[in-house]
Structure formats: structure tokens, C-alpha cells
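In full, the data:

***
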Amino acid sequence: MIASVIDGRIRLRDPRLKDSGLISRITSALAKQPGIEEVIPNPRVGSLLVRYETGLIASPKVAEVLERLLPGARRPEAASAPSGSKPPGRSGASPCLPLSRRQCTHLGMMVSLAGSLAALTVKSKTLHVQLGILFVAFSLIHMFDKRQRLLA
């Protein structure tokens, strides 16, 4: 399934990509396509990053090639939605929030850690502890989201 699409870059995640034989065939086939700059496989997590030249090839064409090489590679919602109905954007971004869940988690960790350290400088032990607990909460969310990589 296509995990994220940004102009010039598509990340594909699929359990079938853990097979090194399949991933090498797909990598070599993609490398032969005009406009494909780089193909970075990661068989440990079943991921494939495709970097392409936006002036030579468009993301729908790259997605079409990926679908041909690995049936079922498109996003589930892309298969049911009419073409062009969903603007390209960040993976995991909510239509209501300008940031994705990952970005919110990272921002929460940074702000709570900085606030906790700032609370130490002004000698506010209570605020330091509260912001430290908030940092731990954001860190647990981050680890939960990355559990497959952490436990691999």
C-alpha cells in the first residue's frame, strides 16, 4: 500500500516487500523507468522509497507502475475514489489539522521537554514534573507508533 506521497517521492509499505527476491525485481524494474532517480528498498520493514523527477514523470504514473509490479499497491481509498478527487498531501494528515499525527507527536515531545527544562531554570518543580509526565506520554505514543520497528 502507498504509505505517503510527496512531489518527487513515494513510499510504499507492504508485507510482501520483506521478500528480498521480490524487492530486488521491483527495484531493478523501477530503476529502468524514465524519470526514476532512486529506489531505496528496506526489506526489514517491507518498505520501498521511490524518488522521481517531477518534471519527467508524475506521481500517478509512478503509482501506476508500482501497481503493475506489485498488485494491490495503491492506497485503499484511492481505489474507490474517483481520479483527482483527493488532492495530494501528507500521509496521515487530518483534514481538520494542518499537522499529521507524527508531526504532532514530535512537536509535543519537543515542546514538553523544552518546557520541562525551562521550568527547572525558574525553579518550578511542580511544572517541571507535569511537563515531564506530558513528555513521557508523547514518548509512549511515539513508541507505540514505531512498535514494529522497535520490536523487529
